[in-house]
Each structure stands twice: as structure tokens, then as C-alpha cells.
Amino acid sequence: MIQYIVTVATTGAITAIMCLGVNVSWGWVGQIDLAYYAYVAIGAYGAMILELHKAHPTVTTTNSYILGLHWPFIPAVLAATAMGGAAALIVGAIALRRLRGDYIAIITACTALMLTAVTGQDNQLVGGFIGLYGLNQPLNSTLHLGATAYSYFYLGLCIFCLGLVYVVLERIYRSPFGRSLRAVRENETAAAAFGRNLFWLRLRGYAIGGAVGAFAGALYANYLLAWNPASWNLIEVALLIAGVVVGGRANSRGVIIGSIIIDSLLPEISRLFPLLTSNTSIGPSIAAILGAGGIIVMLRFRPGGILRERKTMDRSPAPMPSLVPDVPAVSLAGISSAETTSVGSTAEGSTDE
Amino acid sequence: MLGVGFGLVTAAIVALSTVALSLQFSVTRSINFAHGELMTIGAYAGYLVAKHTSDLPLQAIAAMAAGALLAWFLNWGLFRPFARRGGSNLVLFVISVAASLILQNVFQLIFGASYVDYHTSATRAYHVGPFQWTTIDIVIMVVAAAVLLFMHLMIRRTKFGKAQRAVADDILLARTAGVGAERIISLTWVLDGAIAGLAGMFLALQVGSFTSTLGFTYLLVVFSAAIVGGIGKMYGAMLGSLVIGLVMEVSAMYINPSYKETMAFLILVLVLLFRPQGIIPALSEGAVR
Questions:
Q1: Residue B135 is part of a domain; what is its CATH number?
Q2: How does DSSP classify residue A65?
Q3: B66: Cβ–Cβ under 8 A, 6 or more apart, which residues?
Q4: Would you state the pLDDT for residue A341?
Q5: Is B23 on the interface with A (CB under 8 A)?
Q6: Is residue B286 part of a domain?
Q7: Residue B17 is part of which domain span?
């Protein structure tokens, strides 16, 4: 039972990191990134090809993989994170250039599908459909822990990483850069008028999201010790988005809560349904239906999510005497206090009076 | 040349679905990510009817009815309430992504996760010039051509088509002029669903077996065709489908057929990069905008 909880908690912590990454693009920048799981996969593949070494049972006559450098765990994870960020920079440079929000979603979806096709079909790149497997438990060559103790250790590591990502993202969120991102989200024209480079801001936000996804992917691969094209699916992004929407868009704490509810508790509770009927495969389907239903219900009744985005406050010590008394809310960040509250952008407008 | 023949069949299926998507987009201005599920439900409806009768027209009617019903429901239950409350296009898009995921899993709950077989009984191969088609291939192409012609006539010649164009141009102005915009949008969705359902049934018949993700795997191909042709333009959608269908099947003759869809996406990415308005932007008086 405890082992079961440890498994769920480890996966949950990794998924929460993934959701935090989705929150950067959907919550902060306000764009739908359907390629997100591709960055998770890049992180997973990246960590594995760096950590495995060439003379390994995975290498057969038909299947092989590139690199195989036999790096230690930590540099491999960091490098995989950088790979995800770099991939996001490239995709973002194409997708964000001059496309509307829903087109960005479509082009990123196509990117993800292309990557699935390539990783699955090319047997020499990352092992084709068989994928990669046979990784040793990271760090255990020095720690020499037993199976149970190691699972506790890895859970602790994942929770530590979740905390780390949370702190780093919170800092970015509060930084001038984070404020500019939100300004772009709330009102592009105003942000541009205040001299913000929309493309460059969005691209950096997008790359941060991709890097966080890759980081989570690297952790995930090191937990599963195997990775193949079946491990990731385009539509699963929807469940990560669901975690963000339900928890509270652009509120990191809310996102973690939402991720736990939608991506950890729901699937586990749904495992109970098959006990009621003879059909054993309905669990994941029910979890997906409920999760996606969560998006619709939340957007309809509480677009801000469980924990709403905090109001930005003007923290300057003495309020500046406003020259234009009628519009006191406009600050340098483009749009601030009054308007940042409308989290669900226009969807909320009419509901929130 | 064989590839071109297959390409024409694929193009016919894609064209049906794309024209439906484009029509819906031009009138409502929101991208429906659950469009693939309209195709899937059509396929399942055809499959269910085929269990009782091998009558192809009956199966087609069932597919169209199922697609139309689902599309009407999507509009009535999801898109209209959200649009009425001023949901942005992006919010509507997220809603449709959620709807797509829900529907896929509902299909999986009802029909199971494994492939189901769906064939027509009487089929044989024909050699027409350099091409090689089966009976169903020819049926698909003829019906697709007929449906596209019907769409053209409907949009150009009927009062309903005129109202559709008015709503697509400017919904407020259309309302002011006494067009029942809600009804037109509703009917557009029904039409969209019916044609997409038919396309889904044809796709399933042509492939021979399918699962709950039939439409979803084809969705981005349809998007590619729609955007290559300039989304919302009906004749553009037909041309885009032709381009995408031919590229997919001809490329499959030379490289690994698993990269078929990848080729379609590659074209989409190139078009979005260099001609985001589609390949025929000059056709501004195209059917429904």
C-alpha cells in the first residue's frame, strides 16, 4: 500500500512539474502549445541517449540510437533540459512569428505528430517503436539503496525538483520579464505600444515552458527507466491543460493542486471503476472524460480556476500622484492591477461581476 | 501514376471533410478541434448499420445523421453558450480540444479499444487509364464530387447560402437585416456534421478497419488542407485537399508510407510560414468568404 502511494506520488510530482511548464505557455503567455508533450519526450529521450552507453542490449541489428555517452545522471538531466529549451526555441521561432493563437496550436500539434512519426519510424535515431530501455537507477551506483529505500529517495528527489521548479518559475513570474509576458497576454497592442518586443517575449516564454517540460521528461524517463513513442501522445497535453485550467491559470500553487486532482487523483480513482464492471480498460477513458470535462466545467463556471491568479499590486512605497486621474491603473508593465484579474481573458468578463 | 490515382481518392475524402470544416469556420470563426470526432461518429454509424444491411446508401444516411446530430449538439451544448458569453477564439479552441478528448474516450467506452472491420461486400478492382481503383474508390469520388457540387449550388443559389454568406461576412449586419443568425449557424453546424460524418464513413470504408481515433488521426490532415487552401474559403479547401491528397499518396510511393501524414504537415508548416493566407488569397469573392 505504501509502495503504491509512493508510486502515485512520484508520478504525481513529475506530472506537476509538467503542468507548471504548460502553465508558462497557457497561463502566462496565453497560447496553446500542443507540442508540449514533444518537449517532454525530447527531455526523456535526451536524458536516456546521454546516460545509456553504446554497447548496450538495446542496440540490436535493427535498432540503435545516437550518442550513448554514458553520462552521469545530473549532467544528463541538465543537458536534456537544455535540449528541450533549444527545441522549443526552434519550433517557437517558426510558430510564434506571425500566427494567431489557434494557428499556433495547430502548427505545434503538427510538430508533435511529425516528431512522433520520426522517432517511431527511424530505427537508428532513438530505437524506433521499441524505444529505449535498460537504464540503471540513477545515482544508485553511489547510493547502494535497496528497492524500497530507493523509491523513497527518488520520490524525495522528484518533490525537491518540483519545489525547485516552483521557486524558479515564481521568481520569473514576478520579474519584469514575467510582468511583460502577462502584459502581452492581456493586451498585445498596449504591450507593443509600451515598446515590448512581442515575438521575443513570447519566444522566451515558450522556450522556458519547453525546458520545464524536458526537465520533467528527463525525470520521468529516469523513473520509468524506459521510453518509447507509445509513452507520449498528442492528446495527453489536454489533460495537462486541464490541470492548469482547473487549478488556476497563472497561479503556480493552483496549478500544482489542479495537477494533483486531474492528473493524479482522477486516474487513480478511475481505476476503481473497472471493479464495478467486467470491462477492465475503462479506467483511463473515464479519467480522460472527467479530466476534459473539468476543462469545460471550470471554464464555464469558474474560469480563474480553484486558486485564481493573484492581483498584481503596485508595490511602490508612495503612490505617485497621477497626472491623469481617470486612468490610475495603467502602469509601466502595460496593463496591471485592474485588468490582470480577468484571468480567463474574455471568457470571464461577463461572469465575474 | 498509381500514386496519383490513390491521391485522388484520398483527396476526395479530405475534400469532403475540409469543405465541411471550412464552411463551419467561415460562419462561426472558431476552429473546431473536435471535427475529427464528427468523422469518427459517421464511421461508427455506418459500421453499425452495415451489421444489419449491406445497403450503402442507408449506411451513408446513418453516417450523415449521426454526424449532423453530434455537430448540432456540440454547437448547442458547447460552442453557442461559450460564444454567447464572449469566449475568445482561444477559449473556444480549448473547449473543442476537451470535447475531442471526451468524445474519443466515449467512443472507446462504447465500441472498445480494438479495431473494428468495416467493408462493403461487393468490391472489385477497375483499371481506368493509368489508374487502379476499387468500386468503393469510384463511389467515393463520384459522391464527393456530387456533394461538392451541391454545396456550391447551395451557397451560390439558395437563400440559405446567401444568409450563410451574410453571417460569415458580418454577423451583426446580418442580424440587423433580419437574418436569423443563430438558426443559420445551427444549420451550418448540422450541414458540417453531415458531410464530415459521410467523409468519416468513406475513410473507414477505404481503410477497411478503424478505432475511436480514426477522425483524430485525420484531423490535422484536414486542417492542413483547409489552411493550405486558405481557411474558410470553400474552393480553396477543395484545391488544398487536392494538393494534400496527392502529396500524401504520391510521396508514399517513394518514401516510407508512414511519413504520409508528415508530408502533409510539412506542407502546412511551409504554407503557414510563407503564405499564411493560403495559396489562393486573391479569390476574395470565393464561396463563403
A1: 1.10.3470
A2: B
A3: B41, B42, B44, B45, B197
A4: 41
A5: no
A6: no
A7: 2-274
